[in-house]
Task: structure prediction
Amino acid sequence: MKRIVARKFGSNFYRLRIPWRPFCTDASQILSRSNAGDPKKESEGQQYDIAIVGGGMVGLALACSLATRPLTKHLNIAIIDSNPALGRKHFIKKEDLPDPRVSTVTPATISFFKDIGAWQYVERHRHAYFDKMQVWDYTGLGYAKYNARDADRDVLGCVVENKVLLSSLLSRVQDTDLQKKIYPSRLTSMSILPNCSSLEVDSTLSVTTLFSHGRLVKLELEDGNSLYAKLLVGADGGKSRVRELAGFRTTGWNYSQNAIICTVEHAVENHCAWQRFLPAGPIALLPIGDKFSNIVWTMNSKESSEFKSMSEDDFLKAVNYALDYGYGPHPTSSLLGNADIFSWFKGDISRSANDCFEIPPKVVKLASERMAFPLSLRHANDYASKRVVLIGDAAHTVHPLAGQGVNLGFGDASTLSSVISEGIAVGIDIGEVSLLKKYETDRKPANVMMMAVLDGFQKGSRDCYYFLEDLHKCVSGC
Ligand SMILES: Cc1cc2nc3c(=O)[nH]c(=O)nc-3n(C[C@H](O)[C@H](O)[C@H](O)COP(=O)(O)OP(=O)(O)OC[C@H]3O[C@@H](n4cnc5c(N)ncnc54)[C@H](O)[C@@H]3O)c2cc1C
Result:
C-alpha cells in the first residue's frame, strides 16, 4: 500500500511542508500544504501550485472550477491582475448604468456556471434569458425565426453584462475555501530552466533549488514581487504577455471592419435577440434585462468613427432606421438561408415556420458610451508547453459580433481544470507538458472550428459557412 501511494503521488512530494504520512491516500490533502507562512520561503519568493496571469472572466472561471473539484480545491493559487475591481468583493451597485460590454452566454456556459456555483451570483444581477431570435436582411428576401419551445427548451441563451460575470466569478471564488492570493500587478517576465532529471524531489528542497532544476517557473511582476509556480496559466487576453514570453507563435489577421457596441433603452422590455444583415455588415440587438438592450453593429472603420461621434439623437435615428425600414423593405416570406451569427445558440433547433416577421422595439435612449472595437482573428499555434498553458483570448481571439469568444474561453477553463484534476489523481506533475497537451488536444478542434465558422461568416463565404455550421453543431453539443 505504502509503495503504491508513494509511486502514485511521488512527483508531488516536494510540495509537502509536513512529514509525509504513509497511509494518506488523499491527493488533494497532499497538495494542500503550501509554503505560506514559512519565512525562509517567503524571502525567496512565494511558491504556488498554479499562477493564473489575468483575472478576467476566463482566469477567474478557472479559479472557480479548480475550487469546486475534490482533487484541486486544496491547490494554492496566485491570481495576477492589476484590475482594481479584483480588490473588491461586490463592485456592482443596483443604480449603476449598464455596462456597454456584454456577453451572450450559451446554454453550455450556463451549465458550467451552475456546476462551479457561480450562476446563483449572476442571477442576483441584471441579465436576460432569451427564447426567441429573428434574423433577416436588408434585401427583403426573407427572414428566419427561432423559438426555444420548438426544441423543448426554456431558453436559447442569456445576455449578461461583463461586469456581472466578472463580479459573480470573483464573489464565488472568494466564498470558496480555495487558497488564493490576488497580486494587484502585471507580469513582466518569466523564466523556466531545463528539467534536471537527477533531482530527488523532497519536501526539504528550497524554492530556488526546485527552480534551478526546472521544477518551477519563476514570475517577475511590475511591482517588484516575484513568485514561483508549478504551472503558469496565461489568461491575460488577446495581447497575452504570457504567450509572448513563452514564445507561442500565432496565426491571424485583422479584418477591415469595426464593431460599434453600446447599450440602449426601449420604452418596453425586449425578450428577443434580433439580427439584421445590412450592406456593410450585421447589426444585432440583444436584450440585457429591464428595458435595456445591447447593440453590436459591424461597419467599416470610417463609418464607425462617424457613428461613434455623432449626436445621440442622430445615432438613435440611425439604429432605428437600421433595425426597421432602412436600406430595404421588410421581408414577406421566411426564406432566409441559415447563415446567421446565432447559429450555435440554436443547436438542434429548426426554424419556427409559423412565427410572423416582427419589427424590433424602438430604441429611445442611449444608456452607455459607444465603444468601437477592431475585428480580428488570432490563434496560438500551441496552447501548452512545459509549465505554461494558455486559455481564453490568450489562446484564441475571434471577432466579437458573434458573441462566442468568452464561451470558448469558459470551455477552456472547464477542460483545463479537469485535466489538472486527472493529473493529480495519477500523480503527474501538473506542469508536465504531456499532461497539458491533453488539454490542448481537447480544446483546439472546437476552437479552430468556431474560428473557421466566424471567419467564413466574416468574409461572406456562405458555402463554407453552411458546411461548418453543421460541423460545429457536432463539436459544440450546445
Ligand atoms: C466588443 C466585444 C464584444 C464581445 N461580445 C462577446 C459576447 O457577446 N459573447 C462572448 O462569448 N464573447 C464576446 N466577446 C469576447 C470576449 O469579450 C472575450 O473573449 C473575453 O473577454 C476574453 O476573456 P479573457 O478572460 O480570456 O480575456 P480578457 O477579458 O481580455 O481578460 C484578460 C485579463 O488579463 C489581464 N492582463 C493582461 N495582461 C496582463 C499582464 N501582463 N499581467 C497581469 N494581468 C494581465 C487584464 O487586466 C484582464 O483582466 C466580445 C469581445 C468584444 C471586444
About this structure: Confidence is low (pLDDT under 50) at residues 1-43, 461-478.
